């Protein structure tokens, strides 16, 4: 076989192995709590498939390891081995070892340092001993070495699974477009027999199909966000074991569909929030009981879709943020002056500062004050916003609001200088003409709207646009959710249009106020404004609301 | 297509092809394998807040192409856009990922074939642009054409974007200004 073909085969094998391992991990975690024979059967199938694949693709070590896992599972079936915590740990470590042997990335976790040979020995020993497994090796003690052959892995190909029915719809639609186009061509060849209205109608028919196709193609990129939540079952299990805390994971809204990039980018912030919640939020079982709470804490990760945005909420029912301690720490580190006061919203914002931590000691989990900074940065990068709600003693909830990165939006086009900008229609509330007395050159101003003073931003000045100043200016009243209203003064209102958002190049990814670009009917590129980040760059503090 | 282009050592042994173009009446050239295509300059949309060497974005058959003002990038006065202005589409690497971008140039020159003897090493100083951005010089008759190291030129962008970020992001500024021990 040609080496390239072999490499391609291995690529497919790795993608498959990655999914199998993820499934195994999930099933192993369920072993402890469920008696459902289907879980065990499913696990068996996954293990068996993996063993066959490993052998075929030339990973004898991995196949041997899988074989030992299979032996152990056999004992579960025969009920000679109970699913004790130590056996579950051992099985989870086997999954890590397999990931390493096969060169498959771990799911959002730092690759564990495990020595496959040690795991292999332990598995066989456990199987021989008939379940009296002794203490499994501690994670992180032995450092494994990647086999030579896997030293230089090619970057994994970015792939996406698309439902076959979606693909079929795409195919159907392409067929319909072909027919419709043929009809249009036939009509145009004998254009004199048809009225312009008929031709236009035929064209619009094709056009409609084409828009359907466009929408479907975009939808093909969408995946359920639940894929980003899956690894946390294991994370929580491990954190619980490490801290002696009992935490139950509750997830919701896994089927909310988001662009595949969101799933990739949201993993890190979520990991930090989950670790923080367990380490700082949720109390030890004894403490919880003393406070009249159930001994097992609950961590909820919930996703939902709100107009044009994905909202992901991570909440715990732990101690909540300690206002006093944050204030003290902020004063001690010089973030605030010795007698400086802040309202809750601004104070809690400080926990996102790099290096800020109120933990008394640094644990393996957290306390270095890096995590929240990472959360902040990543969410900023996705042009999202974070809000914190907390009640002392009752828990904390972080709400991440992420804009849809790639989609068709209803847009509202405005002209500024020589350029056209697109505002997401859901951010646009109304349009008014700028009163004569406000006509000027300032970058900002105040507008009287039905008895209220409304701040506005002149985009022409803000963006330093070129071109002659217009005769009249209009103000678009924009907002974000219920909380914010502001005006954007523009040269002209161009009206509503469906817009396909295209992500801007990586080069422009950090510019505040822009969320993407769209290609106009004229072939020019228009920029799509991100209203919330545009307003945020003007307002003294970001969107942080405290209950 | 290779985008790392410290190719002066390898090009010394083979016949190499370059595409030349003009900036400020000076002739520069790029390894021909680094050029994806050449398009006419039209309708570049300015990006507010972007650093000056980023001219904007344009529509390349339905995808959005960032356009770099090569002159500014090389430390020359900003490129004039005449009727003969073109965009040379090249591939660069940013944070380990390939990105396609356009270079704005004054006019396209020609395709040059250099034998190893016609390639000269760089002088210690005296070039109109920083020596870091060059891989060598090619002799055409009595004149010299400066050979650009596109990997270096575009590779230096990452830092500059980060710099631009620092000054435009108030949230970041606020947090960093207060400083933490």
Automatic annotation (TrEMBL), chain A:
Residues 408-540 form the CheW-like domain. The modification Phosphohistidine is found at residue 48. Residues 2-105 form the HPt domain. SUPFAM superfamilies: ATPase domain of HSP90 chaperone/DNA topoisomerase II/histidine kinase (SSF55874), CheW-like (SSF50341), Histidine-containing phosphotransfer domain, HPT domain (SSF47226), Homodimeric domain of signal transducing histidine kinase (SSF47384). PROSITE patterns: CHEW, HIS_KIN, HPT. It catalyses: ATP + protein L-histidine = ADP + protein N-phospho-L-histidine. Keywords: ATP-binding, Chemotaxis, Kinase, Nucleotide-binding, Phosphoprotein, Transferase, Two-component regulatory system. The keyword Phosphoprotein applies. It is an enzyme of class 2 (transferase). Residues 172-406 form the Histidine kinase domain. Its EC number is 2.7.13.3. The keyword Phosphoprotein applies. Involved in the transmission of sensory signals from the chemoreceptors to the flagellar motors. CheA is autophosphorylated; it can transfer its phosphate group to either CheB or CheY. This is Chemotaxis protein CheA. The lineage of its organism: Bacteria, Pseudomonadati, Myxococcota, Myxococcia, Myxococcales.
Automatic annotation (TrEMBL), chain B:
SMART domains: CheW (SM00260). InterPro entries: CheW (IPR039315), CheW-like_dom_sf (IPR036061), CheW-lke_dom (IPR002545). Pfam families: CheW. Residues 15-159 form the CheW-like domain. Gene3D superfamilies: CheA-289, Domain 4, SH3 Domains. This is Chemotaxis protein CheW. It comes from Stigmatella ashevillensis. The lineage of its organism: Bacteria, Pseudomonadati, Myxococcota, Myxococcia, Myxococcales.
């Amino acid at each position: 076989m040609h080496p390239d073909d072999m490499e391609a085969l291995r690529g497919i094998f790795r993608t498959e192995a990655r999914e199998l391992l993820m499934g195994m991990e999930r099933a192993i975690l369920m072993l402890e709590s469920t008696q459902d024979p289907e879980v065990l059967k499913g696990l068996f199938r996954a293990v068996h498939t993996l063993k066959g694949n490993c052998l075929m693709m030339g990973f004898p070590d991995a196949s041997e390891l899988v074989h030992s896992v299979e032996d152990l599972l056999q004992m579960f079936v025969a009920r000679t081995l109970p699913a004790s915590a130590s056996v579950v740990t051992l099985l989870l470590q086997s999954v890590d070892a397999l990931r390493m042997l096969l060169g498959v990335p771990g799911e959002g976790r730092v690759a564990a340092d495990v020595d496959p040979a040690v795991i292999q020995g332990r598995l066989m020993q456990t199987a021989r001993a008939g379940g009296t497994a002794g203490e499994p090796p501690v994670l992180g003690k032995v450092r494994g070495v990647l086999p030579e052959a896997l030293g230089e892995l090619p970057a994994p190909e970015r792939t996406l699974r698309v439902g076959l029915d979606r693909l079929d719809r795409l195919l159907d639609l392409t067929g319909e477009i072909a027919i419709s186009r043929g009809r249009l061509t036939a009509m145009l060849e004998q254009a004199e027999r048809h009225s312009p209205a008929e031709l236009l109608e035929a064209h619009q028919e094709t056009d409609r199909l084409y828009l359907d196709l466009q929408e479907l193609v975009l939808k093909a990129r969408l995946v359920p966000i639940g894929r980003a939540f899956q690894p946390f079952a294991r994370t929580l299990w491990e954190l619980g074991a490490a801290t002696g805390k009992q935490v139950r994971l509750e997830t919701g809204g896994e089927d909310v569909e988001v662009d595949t990039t969101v799933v990739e980018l949201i993993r890190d912030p979520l990991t930090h929030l989950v670790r923080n919640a367990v380490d700082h939020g949720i109390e030890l079982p004894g403490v919880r009981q003393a406070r009249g709470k159930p001994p097992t804490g609950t961590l909820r990760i919930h996703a939902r879709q709100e107009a044009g945005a994905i909202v992901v909420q991570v909440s715990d029912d732990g101690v909540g943020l300690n206002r006093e301690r944050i204030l003290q720490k902020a004063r001690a580190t010089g973030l605030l002056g010795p007698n400086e006061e802040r309202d809750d919203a601004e104070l809690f914002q400080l926990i996102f500062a790099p290096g800020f931590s109120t933990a008394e000691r640094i644990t393996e989990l957290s306390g270095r004050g890096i995590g929240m900074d990472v959360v902040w940065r990543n969410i900023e990068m996705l042009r999202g916003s974070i809000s914190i709600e907390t009640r002392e003693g009752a828990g904390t909830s972080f709400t991440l609001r992420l804009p849809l990165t790639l989609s068709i939006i209803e847009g509202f086009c405005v002209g500024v200088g020589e350029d056209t900008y697109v505002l997401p229609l859901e951010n646009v509330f109304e349009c008014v003409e700028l009163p004569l007395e406000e006509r000027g050159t300032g970058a900002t101003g105040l507008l009287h709207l039905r008895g209220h003073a409304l701040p506005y931003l002149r985009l022409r000045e803000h963006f330093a646009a070129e071109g002659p100043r217009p005769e009249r200016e209009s103000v678009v009243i924009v907002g974000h959710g219920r909380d914010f209203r502001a005006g954007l003064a523009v040269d002209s209102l161009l009206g509503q249009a469906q817009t396909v958002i295209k992500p801007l190049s990586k080069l422009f990814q950090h510019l505040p106020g822009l969320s993407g670009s769209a290609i106009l009917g004229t072939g020019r590129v228009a920029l799509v404004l991100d209203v919330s980040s545009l307003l945020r760059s003007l307002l003294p503090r970001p969107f942080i609301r405290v209950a | 297509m290779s985008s790392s282009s410290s190719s002066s050592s390898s090009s010394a042994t083979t016949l190499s092809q370059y595409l030349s173009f003009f900036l400020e009446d000076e002739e520069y050239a790029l390894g021909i394998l680094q050029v994806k295509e050449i398009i006419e300059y039209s309708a570049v949309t300015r990006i507010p807040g972007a650093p000056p060497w980023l001219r904007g974005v344009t529509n390349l058959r339905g995808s959005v192409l960032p356009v770099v003002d090569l002159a500014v990038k090389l430390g020359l006065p900003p490129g004039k856009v005449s009727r003969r202005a073109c965009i040379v589409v090249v591939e660069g690497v940013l944070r380990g990922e390939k990105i396609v971008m356009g270079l704005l140039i004054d006019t396209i020159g020609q395709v040059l074939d250099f034998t190893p003897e016609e390639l000269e090493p760089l002088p210690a100083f005296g070039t109109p642009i920083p020596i870091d951005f060059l891989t060598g010089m090619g002799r055409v008759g009595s004149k010299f054409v400066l050979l650009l190291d596109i990997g270096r030129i575009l590779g230096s962008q990452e830092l500059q974007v980060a710099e631009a970020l620092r000054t435009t992001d108030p949230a970041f500024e606020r947090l960093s200004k207060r400083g933490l021990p």
